[in-house]
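[agent] plan:
  1. take the single chain provided in the ticket
  2. run structure prediction with default settings
  3. attach structure tokens to the ticket
  4. add a short note for the reviewer (M.T.)
[agent] executing step 1
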Amino acid sequence: MAITNKEIIEGQLRRINEKAHTNLVLKRANRHWPLCREVNGYELPPSPLSETFTRRTSAEMIEYLRGVEDATDFFTHNGTKQEA
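[agent] step 2 finished; step 3 output follows
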């Protein structure tokens, strides 16, 4: 059984939320994925990543989240070796 783009995206977002202590969510709309935050039932831009909503295709979202996860690792030192 092959892994789907949705499963890849959900895994990336779960890891980002854990590392960055954020609560970002993805919605599916017309074959695109908008990234957002949900606060009291309202959808807000995905701050601190961006202050605007941007819809991406599955391939674009996988690439975008890969970069976000790399940046999160760099700034939080998760996934990097710490020298004593």
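[agent] step 4 note for reviewer: Helices lie at 5-20, 58-76.
[agent] ticket updated
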